[in-house]
């Protein structure tokens, strides 16, 4: 449904230090680095699906109340790694990894990036083993 999602930042260098390891925990990598934005993609995808950018209008980036991209995690371990990486790189906890009431195997965590954008990582698969 979505071509891409953008999140605003007021400090692109800080955002890069946060997003590189956090997206890496989900197997995603920075594919583009431009003066005012960075873009992340899945392996083999030529298009960045998540952009972190300074606002085009030059005004400060603000947080959208009620906005939250949920990123696919292949495993519950990837959700855990995403959460750990976020907290280790300047993010804040909004909900530790665990099962949620949105389905029998909906395993998710919630964090905020250093600019206050809320993110989630979700695995809907069954645990390994």
Structural class: alpha/beta
Percent in helix: 10-25%
**Poorly predicted tracts of residues:** none
Radius of gyration: 14 Å
Tally of separate helices: 2
What strand line-up does the widest sheet have? 1-4-3-2
The first-to-last residue Cα distance is 32 Å
Mean pLDDT across the residues is: 96
Largest sheet: 4 strands, mixed
The outline comes out as: globular
What is the string of SSEs from the N terminus onward? EHEEEEHEEE
Percent strand equals 25-35%
Q: How many strands?
A: 8
Overview of the structural elements:
The chain has 129 residues and is α/β, with parallel strands linked by helices. Helix content is 20%, strand content 32%. The strands form two sheets. A four-stranded mixed beta sheet has the order 1-4-3-2, covered by helices on one side. It has a four-stranded mixed beta sheet with strand order 5-8-7-6, with helices on one face. β6 and β7 form a beta hairpin. α1 packs antiparallel against α2. The chain is globular. 33% of the residues are buried. The mean pLDDT is 96.
Task: Give the tags.
single chain; alpha/beta; 4-stranded mixed β-sheet; 2 helices
Write the layout of secondary structure elements.
Blueprint: E1 5-8, H1 12-24, E2 29-33, E3 37-41, E4 50-53, E5 70-72, H2 76-88, E6 92-99, E7 107-112, E8 118-123
Parallel strand pairs: 1-4, 5-8
Antiparallel strand pairs: 2-3, 3-4, 6-7, 7-8
Task: Provide a concise account of the structure shown.
It contains 2 helices and 8 strands. The protein has helices at 12-24, 76-88; strands at residues 5-8, 29-33, 37-41, 50-53, 70-72, 92-99, 107-112, 118-123.
């Amino acid at each position: 449904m979505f071509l891409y999602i953008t999140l605003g930042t007021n400090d692109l260098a800080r955002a890069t230090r946060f997003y590189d390891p956090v997206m890496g925990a989900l197997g995603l990598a920075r594919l583009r680095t431009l003066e005012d934005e960075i873009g992340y993609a899945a392996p083999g995808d030529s298009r960045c699906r998540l952009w972190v950018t300074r606002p085009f209008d030059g005004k400060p980036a603000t947080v959208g109340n009620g906005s939250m991209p949920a990123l696919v995690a292949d495993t519950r371990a990837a959700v855990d790694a995403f959460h750990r990486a976020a907290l280790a790189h300047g993010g804040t906890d909004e909900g530790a990894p665990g099962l949620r009431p949105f389905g029998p195997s909906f395993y998710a965590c919630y964090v905020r990036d250093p600019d206050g954008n809320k993110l989630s990582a979700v695995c809907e698969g069954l645990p390994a083993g």
